[in-house]
Amino acid sequence: MESGSLIEHDTGQDAREIALVDPAGFEAWRDALPARARAAVEAAQFKGAAGTRVILPGSEAESWSAAFGAPAALGPWDLAGAVKALPAGRYRIAGREPGAAALGWILAHYTFNRYLSDPKPVEPRALLVPKSVDIAALRRLADAQVLVRDLVNTPAEDMGPEALEAAVRDVARHHGAEVKVTVGDDLLAENFPTIHAVGRAAGPGREPRLIDMGWGRKGDPKLTLIGKGVCFDSGGLDIKTAGNMLLMKKDMGGAAHALALAGLVMGAKLRVRLRVLIPAVENAIDGGAFRPGDIIRTRKGLSVEIGNTDAEGRLVLCDALALAGEDSPEMILDFATLTGAARVALGPDLPALFANDDSLAEGLLEGAETTADPVWRMPLWKPYAEMLKSDVADINNNASGGFAGAITAALYLEKFVDPKTPWAHLDTFAWTPTAKPGRPKGGEALGLRAFWAYIEKRYGNHRAE
């Protein structure tokens, strides 16, 4: 999807008009129409319901316009349905600004057709917006959302640790960032034992690695992003069922979010010293796979007993979190498709937010509210840390009892974060299970816009020259 031709500044170009109508104002709007248009509305039984449309005839055959059902306050997805409901062409919203809905207009053109022999992309519908709209920023945001979708939708055969590294290098090249990668047994030499343990069974060409991208100038505030990059999760020796394994190509969705957010930071040239850490592994099975009952000494020095090899995401993240803290960043944000428990609690659309700093959490929740990209704060309930106790190691990677799985996973991660460093963890699904306007079934960025709004507000007044 090329976002460049989908949004244009309105300089008086020829375009079809779209009247936005909601049920509350429908009758007044209808009664003000010319007789021919009113008859078309009656014939189509259009009443302004959200997502419905009607074509309105003009005085001449080619002078038609359209009406589309939408609420008075437009959210990101309220115009997305119009893209497929209207013919290809150029459109302007009559008497209103599209606002946040311009993003959904762009993303409604998205298709993932890489593997189709005869792809049928959506024909472009261009939306005209006022000159006050920052089209470049809007396109960057759409492109970030598309990057997450593309990376998550790509099957594991073509999105292993090496391919994920290549995706990071592509973004780095575009923005002039530096990339360092530690691969295979070098992880042991560089003291990343849990990343190595989880990924060592994947075999040649899919070796585990830690991807470390840096950008910005020394002396600027240090912002570190971390993303879980489990490119496929079989569950390891605690193997998943076939049904639970089916979507595990998306288990690198946290890495996709971190990389997309990094692209937004660099694209906006924020004055930060950015670091992105992505532990990229495949949790596979062979004779060298790590085992239930193994005890691994983490980078921080804490020993962890493996209670379940399918609780691997927190293992790769804990070494990355420990490394991040050694650099004393101003803030650490991590993203992970970490627990099924978060989905049980909040469903697929609502990521679980954990934070050790109330001010940071409030800022992220404000970002979620302003962007209509919801997240829900969950507690780091300290008494539940008892569930992570081990008789033979400092901590167990699998909580006993089967309760509060999202909370205990976050509590595990918190043990590897300096309490003085503001830290937030987003347990996101990274997937849309049922298609909605502008959001096809498949990979999705959930929480990305919320986090970006917070970061841009915090650092946006300090942009690089």
Automatic annotation (TrEMBL):
This protein's UniProt keywords: Aminopeptidase, Hydrolase, Manganese, Protease
Record SUPFAM superfamilies: Zn-dependent exopeptidases
Top-level taxon: Bacteria
A UniProt-annotated Pfam family: Peptidase_M17
Cellular component annotations (GO), alphabetically ordered: cytoplasm
Domain Cytosol aminopeptidase: 308-315
Transmembrane segments: none
A GO molecular-function descriptor: metalloaminopeptidase activity
GO BP annotations, alphabetical order: proteolysis
Family from the record: Belongs to the peptidase M17 family.
Protein name listed in UniProt: Leucyl aminopeptidase
Organism: Sphingosinicella microcystinivorans
Lineage, broadest ranks: Bacteria, Pseudomonadati, Pseudomonadota, Alphaproteobacteria, Sphingomonadales
